[in-house]
Amino acid sequence: MPKFRFFPNRMEDYSAHADVSVDKERWLSRIKSLIAEILEYIRGEKSTDGGLYVGSIGVAYMLCYASEFEPLHDRKMVYLNEASDVYKFNRNYFDRHRPRDSDRTSFVLGEAGLNAVGLYLGSMTKNKSLVSANLDQYLSLHKTFLHLNMRCGSDELFVGRAGYLCGIYFIKNILGNQEKLDTMFELNQGIDDIILAMIRSGRSLAAKIRSPTPLMYSYYDTLYLGAAHGLSSILQMALQHKTFIEKHPMEAAWVKDSVDWLLTIQQPNGNFAPAMDELSSPRSEKDELVHWCHGAPGVIYLLARAYLIWKEEKYLNACLKCGECVWQKGLLNKGPGICHGIAGNGYVFLLLYRLTQDKKHLYRATQFANFMLTDEFQSKARTPDNPYSLYEGMAGTVCFLIDLLQPEKAAFPFFNVFDDD
Ligand SMILES: [Zn+2]
């Protein structure tokens, strides 16, 4: 028997028109015990490496998120105090050790992510000076991103422009109407400029390599297609700013043509190849990646955003195909996280539920949550290297379980395609 990257899905699928009930008490108690376990760990060890992705600041993000969740309001102050400790620890570290440029600017891996969480924490604790200090720091990176020219590639999500935009959208959403109009104006103009720089860069590479798409990007010389370092999340961040699409029709058409090209390479099973070079030599089914980072569970956010912007059924149909693929092959044995784990794939169904209101998807999300409690998963799944982290570990699982209980608001962390900014 070949060893697959996923457990076979033997769970019962949704039967038409059945009612779906999510056992609130059960999941709430699970959420509380997971957070208690994470807190015990984080009090002893706060990693400053790995940023939001696998560092302790990603856990602080989860604690802020949990403290916003009404059924956990009795623990709100405990969670926010813990988040504040983690934030201060990370801030002191960055203040003491002047980080290298890429560590300072990276949203997912570096100090930009710390600034975004600091602002979130400041907003949750009504600490205006914390909000403004972190906002200033985040905005001070704008010029660097405008002219960023890293050898590895300057546009993708983890260290490049797409990540910076991802953080700006998150920040704008938190600030809402609280901030002065001139700050909002500055943000909007700043976003347009970064998207334009990202598009110039994609045009230039596409021309150089004779890409079939008007826009193409590379990261360490690989033409990735998925959410982690690839084309899909870069295009998604361009589409997230609706006024850009309205103001820049030519650039918007390049983005749309690139999205439409992605539709042509969606595999019959609904998945997407991780990178361009794998289109001509696809992986065997055993090695296929059905992860948020690489594959349909990450590309779906772009397709959903395209559907919300252009309202064409083809995008929704492609999303539904992603969902079928994830149902078949998404019970990953790499663990419970959101990057390449079951919670990340469960988020696909919460997205589809928000898009369609079809209870089938909420049911499937619940089944994925259930699977993480089975003996099969507990005994055979791998323990990630960073088991408490946001992207690889339990902090991400907690976000997913909270969203399972509030599906009308559910959104993969920092990937809320429903936010119109
Ligand atoms: Zn991953």
From TrEMBL:
UniProt keyword Metal-binding, yes or no: yes
SMART domains assigned to the protein according to its UniProt record, in alphabetical order: LANC_like (SM01260)
Annotated CDD domains: euk_LANCL
Pfam families: LANC_like
Cellular component per GO, a single term: plasma membrane
A GO BP entry: carbohydrate metabolic process
Stored InterPro entries: 6hp_glycosidase-like_sf, LANC-like, LanC-like_prot_euk
Binding-site positions, Zn(2+): C293, C339, H340
Keyword Metal-binding on entry: yes
Record keywords, A-Z: Metal-binding, Zinc
GO function terms (MF aspect): metal ion binding
Family: Belongs to the LanC-like protein family.
Identification of the protein by name: LanC-like protein 3
Record organism: Biomphalaria glabrata
Classification lineage: Eukaryota, Metazoa, Spiralia, Lophotrochozoa, Mollusca
The encoding gene: LOC106069259
